[in-house]
Amino acid sequence: MTEQTSTDLGAAGVPKDAIARLAELRPGQPGGIFTSDLSVNEFLLVREAGFRPLGLVLGSSIYHVGLQLRKWSTNQELNVLSQAMYHARELAMTRMEAEADALRADGIVGVRLAVEMKEFGTDIAEFIAVGTAVKGEPGAGGGGVSNWRNNKGQPFTSDLSGQDFWTLIRAGYAPLGMVMGSCVYHIAHQRLGGVLGNIGRNVEIEQFTQALYDARELAMSRMQAEAEALHAEGIVGVQLRQHSHTWGGHTTEFFAIGTAVRPLREDHVVERPTMVLSLDG
User: Fold this and answer.
1) CA 101 → CA 19, 30, 80, 186, distances in Å?
2) How many Å apart are CA 278 and CA 108, to the nearest integer?
3) Which of 28, 92, 130, 214 is the most buried (most CB within 10 A)?
């Protein structure tokens, strides 16, 4: 690792201890090792797909999520909170990618993106991104691929399992990057008359339905916009999560995340599924 690389990592917010750890890895060199959070099966399948693990990379951001006033009886997105949740995750992802860059990786597989509320305060959370940096070897993906990085010149990121990553590569597709969308939404309270009028009745609460529908759509559309910016063909492994964090029952975050992919070739050969018989009970 060069002095310039260390400077770049420091500018990205990567601590000195992490820079020293990355410098000691030297994967593929005499005396060097790699680190990985892949399971044994995932590790072997990633190697079978033509990628060599370089090292465990991570990014962290402890973020104070601000305050935004909301109207008690109105459905509304809380833009300040949406931006905070998005920016904090981006900081964690950017630092993880900077560590992968320092290892000269082509991408990061098995990425986990988590939020942990801390005891420092009710509005303070740590955003963590962690995965295994990998390097494509000659012949990976069937050969003919000279650059595995995305159109922004960054290492690709993927939250697919090692098994799904192997299947994707074998079928003639490549990951471009993890794409996400966030929306923090205030769901209006029902007025007293509405609550009393619904007692004992089967009835849709349209106010709540519309709020949750709108919030999910905002998160999904933002995820799709990120994929379009990467010139992706599509998004696989999409998850739509809902978290209330510490805001209470009527304020919640809808978070959409998946892996944007691109075709490597026109002829996509899908592996034939194999049947597995369980020997349990």
Assistant:
1) 12, 21, 31, 39
2) 32
3) 92
Which of 216, 100, 74, 209 shows the shortest CA–CA distance to 153?
A: 100
* CB-count burial class (<10 Å; 0-12, 13-18, 19+) for 165: buried
The vertex-55 CA angle with 259 and 129, nearest 5°, equals 45
Domains of the chain (ranges; CATH) run: 3-141+148-263 (3.30.110.70)
Mean pLDDT, range 113-124, rounded to an integer: 78
pLDDT at 91 over 60: yes
Greatest C-alpha distance within the chain: 75
Mean pLDDT of the chain: 85
Bridge partners, 157 (sequence order)? 108
* Residue 142: closest CA among 206, 60, 48: 48
Question: Any idea which residue has 């194999």 for tokens?
Answer: 274
Cα three-residue angle 200-206-212, rounded to 5 degrees: 120
CA–CA gap between residue 248 and residue 2 (Å, rounded)? 48
How is residue 6 written in tokens?
Answer: 């260390």
What distance in Å separates the CA atoms of residue 256 and residue 239, rounded to the nearest whole number?
Answer: 6
Q: What is the pLDDT of residues 195-245, one digit of tens each?
A: 555 666 676 667 788 888 999 999 999 999 999 999 999 999 999 998 877
pLDDT at 194 over 60: no
Q: Is 274 exposed, middle or buried (0-12, 13-18, 19+ CB in 10 A)?
A: exposed
Cα–Cα distance, 170 to 226 (Å, whole number): 25
pTM reported for the whole predicted model: 0.84
